[in-house]
Structure formats: C-alpha cells, structure tokens
Protein 1
Amino acid sequence: MTQNGDDATLVRRPGIPDLRMAPEGAEPAPPQDPQADQPPQELPLDRNQAILEAAKQVGALLKRKGHLFALAGSVAAYAHGGEKNMQHDVDFAIRPEDAEAVAATLREAGLTVYTPPEDWLIKATCFGQPVDIIFELAHRPVGADMLERAEELSVDSVRMPVLAPTDLLWSLTAAFSEHHCDFGAALPIARALREKVDWEQVRRECGDEPMPAAFFFLLERLNVI
C-alpha cells in the first residue's frame, strides 16, 4: 500500500541510543572511534530520483485502475530521452470529467489529495514529492484525443502513457505569458526532443501569442529549429 506522502521517509536515520548514568567510582571508558558500532546508513535519494519514484508510484496506480491519463512535464521529457533534470514536481494529464475518480483512487491508496485555489488541477503528495493532476493545459481542457496520442514508454522501468513530444512541447510553449516565461526550463527539453516534434503544428496551436513567438525566435537563433 502506498504510504501517505507526509508519513513516508525515503532515508532511514539511526535512532538515538538510551542514555544511562555511570555507577559511582567507575572508570571512564576509553575513547572509541566515533564511527565504530554505528548502524549503516542508506545514501539519501537525490531530488530527481525522488520525483521519479513518485511518478512511478502514481502512474502505476492510475494504470492499474484503468484511468485514461498521460505523464506530462519534465518527467515526460525525461521518458522521451531528455535530461534527468526534473524541475519541481510530477505532472499527470487527465480529462476534467475524470478528476473525482482519479482523486478517489489516490486517496484509497493512502496518498494525501487536496484541491488548490486553481480550478484546473488537483494536487497530491507521494513520497514527500508534490504531484499535480492537471485537467487543463495552457487554458484548454485535456481531451481524450490528446491522451490517446500518448506513447507508452518506460519511466525508470515502469511503463506508462507519456504525452507525445508535439503535445508536450505545445503544452510548455503555449503556457508562456507575461507572468510565466521561464525559457530556461523549456529550452533543454526543446533541444532534446527537437527531432521528434512537429514544430509547425506547435506554432499553429500557439497562434500569434507574443511569448511563444519569442521562444520560437530564440530556438531559431540557437539553431534548435
């Protein structure tokens, strides 16, 4: 059973031994090697691996229950061959009408699920990592056609549907605005997946919005496209 994200611990820490008073007149114990008799410690998982573990766990849950979904965001880019450089969280795309059923599945598995002020996603926590369950990408409801175009790929040994490269780059580029235009995060993804993306389709879908147009200009000057 999946552990609640608030309770799960990825790193085992040694406990503190009981303290006892020494008997009167006892000779002080000789100094010992501070490393002696210490229980072995597991190496801590780095943030990228922790995010991957959360993606695998949630993806397996959704797949087992037969939900229509696709992995999105930076973990999807990694699954398509991009860098192992997860940004902040795990993103999954679902249809709006499936949100309640997906939330119920995650709660039944013991995950913390809550509804944020934004009305286009629900949030969960798995292994201490934030998971966004998104049903609106770039101000458009996620449709069955997009999810059916998803490619089943191995995500660190767990197979699951992943947004197609063209849909993934559209979702990242079309979301740029005056208040959100982090080209630095999207640039490595565009460079890694450039040969798999229908850039003309991405341009058409983005229309004449200025921030996506600026990103395309940057990609052209850098010879990415």
Protein 2
Amino acid sequence: MLAPMTSSRRSRNPSVIFDLDGTLVDSEPNYYEAGRRVLEQYGVPGFSWEEHTRFIGIGTRETLETLRREHGIAAPVDELLAAKNRAYLELAGAHTEAYPEMHRFVDLLHGAGVPLAVASGSSRAAIEAVLARTGLGGVLTTLVSAEEVEHGKPEPDVFLEAARRLGAAPGDCVVVEDAPPGAEAARRAGMACVAVPYVPGTADDPAFASAGLLFPGGQKEFDARRAYEWVTGGN
C-alpha cells in the first residue's frame, strides 16, 4: 500500500467540510442508475458507467445541462433535474451506506468538537435523505447544496458558504474530497484538502496536486486516524 502524500497543516482551530457523494458515501452507482433511467426515458439509451465517470464531482444540474446539450434533449433542464432527483431518492432510500473508515473519521472529529459541514453538488433533499439513511444526519447538520449557491464546483461557492455557516475563516477549513473538481474548488476557496480519489486513476490529476493529504488508492487506503491527526495536529 502506498503511503499518503502529505504536507503539514496550519490551523489549530480547524473546521472540516465534507463532500458527500463518493467521499462520505458510495452513492455514485445510484446516481449513475438514476441518470441512465432518465436519459432512457428521454430517448437516450445506452448511457454507460464510463460516460458517467466524466461527471463525478460535478453538480447534478451542471451534469444534466451538459448531457441535454450533447444529446439534443428538448425537455428543459429543470424537468430533467426533477426526474433524476425522484429516481435517485428512490434508489438512495433503498440502499446507501457510508464508507466505514470515513464514518469513523466523522466520529473522531465530532468527538473532538471539530465543527463539521457537508457541501455537495446534490440537491438538499438528496443530501438529507442520504445522511438520514446512513445515520450521519444527527452529526452532520450544517449542509450546503450547490442549488443554494450561484456556481457549482470547481468554483468555490459551496465551500465558502459552508465556512460562512460554520462561522469559520476559509483558511481554517479542511475540505474532504474524492474528485478533481472538488479539490480545485477547495484550492480556489483557500482551504486545505484531504483527497481520497473515488477513481484511483485520477490521483495524478493536477487538481489533486494542491491537496495537503492525498490517499492515492482512494477509500481502500483511507486511514481515519491518520487523517484525524493531520487535521487536528494530533490534539
């Protein structure tokens, strides 16, 4: 197993902002299936997992805007968004689990009194449903959806809004991310980043170069204690 790439942390009073999909929970299969169903419903069959991976880390609206344009779908994006959210919520309600080691990381931080938030490209309804399903909703209560800000990732808006709601300076925040657009958004926000690539093959993406702590092998290499000590300085 490769050792994580690391640099020293600066803040002694950190706040931690989690991405949701692919970071806290393995929801990408549900998002893929929801997207496949909706595209088929609107006359675009055969949407593949490989095509879906292009959009990992990108907000649902931005994803659908791109797919609508590429496939010449006549329906308005709001209609597609509503249909995908319905399909996703049905799938997520049936099966969504938090990554065990990431759940442990949340528990360690919460136990130490570290302020926590979730900032995601998903709808607020999807965020709340997934957190409730995984048992994390009672701990992660500060939530920001990309629908609540002007621009999704890789723009920094969701992370800056999360910091504002936590009452934290951006430079005191650590973002936990699985995708290059999220890592880039953290950099633009002036925040440190713990990167756990959902697709390990993206670990050498230039966007991850700014991560202070990178687990190149993704969730199979992620170490909650190692990440906790890096964020808190061992306190």
